[in-house]
Design a protein that fits this description.
Helix content is about 35%, strand content about 30%. By secondary structure, it is an alpha+beta fold. The protein has a seven-stranded antiparallel β-sheet with strand order 2-1-5-6-7-4-3.
């Protein structure tokens, strides 16, 4: 698998929004959705605002690959489940609070709630 360049990590991590495209079973792309993305160290993470019933998240569970676009970077990615580590979830929560603090708690609180924790996905570049 190809990795992120430092420039890509910085640009995607700094972007306010990310366009995430999941794939249908036949490999064709679905319509992109706009979501938030955070950076923890040299890794990038996304979560489903409404928890595991969110359509795009369910799609990643059936086919854990797709494409992202943010900060002028477009990349094929694999979606890796990252929700089991309490310390990591706390770091991701802190990243969401810090990055999106200008938004009201109405938007930020669901991103750091237990239901969102279960949907934490690490974005891993792929060929």
């Amino acid at each position: 698998m190809a990795g992120w360049t430092q420039n890509e990590i910085e640009r995607v991590g700094a972007a306010d929004e990310l366009q995430l495209t999941t794939l249908k079973q036949d490999g064709t792309p679905r319509k992109p959705v706009t979501i938030w993305v955070v950076r923890v160290g040299d890794d990038l993470y996304v979560r489903a605002y409404r928890g595991p019933e969110t359509a795009w998240f369910r799609h990643t569970q059936r086919r854990p690959e797709g494409r992202i676009s943010a900060g002028g970077v477009t990349k094929n990615v694999a979606f890796e489940q990252a929700s089991g580590d309490k310390t990591l979830n706390q770091q991701i929560d802190a990243a969401y609070r810090s990055k999106y603090k200008r938004y009201s708690a109405t938007y930020v609180d669901p991103m750091i709630a237990p239901q969102a924790h279960t949907t934490t996905l690490k974005l891993v570049p792929s060929a």
